[in-house]
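Why does residue order matter? Because the sequence determines the fold. Keep that principle in mind as you read this record.
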Amino acid sequence: LYERFGSKTWLREVQDASAGPAAAEAPATVQKRRLRTVLSEEELKDLLLKLEAVELAGFNAVCAGDEPMSARLIGVAFAFADEAVYLPLAHEYPAAPPQVGIENALCLLRPWLERDERLKVGENVKFDRHVLANHGVRLAGCTHDTMLESYVLEVHERHDLGSLAQRHCGWSTLSLEEVTGKGASRIPFSAVEVARATEYAALNADCTLALHQLLHPRIARDEKLAYVYSKI
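Structure:
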């Protein structure tokens, strides 16, 4: 229409706008980490040795409930190196495997969780801090949050983990509804089979770390964005 009536300025604006998405960064090709479940105290101690040795780990508290003051901790997930791990703590269903348990697990994890120098990246870290505080644990070392990184870089986009994964990693993640169901047939996360919960939670931790490794360098390259992210 603009070409037909000779509206060159408007035509140029439309052409520039249509060129924008093509010039944007395409989703990166990101290799997913190996998923596994930790069920015993011995496996957890081995996991802790690995966590102590890495510079940064993805971390995610998995809960039943959406309100931070009342949400119940069901498990925790980690991502580092080439693996993403789910530690189930309170899954309760017929034939559920034995688990370390919340009290024993947090006793072992507390030194890593509460040390500032053990760096972690999360997704909505504020929620995880509230949940762990309900269990007497002060979550520290959470230097990065992918939700905040997304807000700084692209405030006009969706910031949930599934959208970020699709947009930046080309991944399709499991939604909570896919795992627990919805409506009258919805089950609590504690009733989700451990294998399915691992697929959901460990992948979320993996995605959190992968997204940080993609998004944070873009923020760091821009002095103004870096200021907003780190100072405000």
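Residues 20-24 have pLDDT under 50 and may be disordered.
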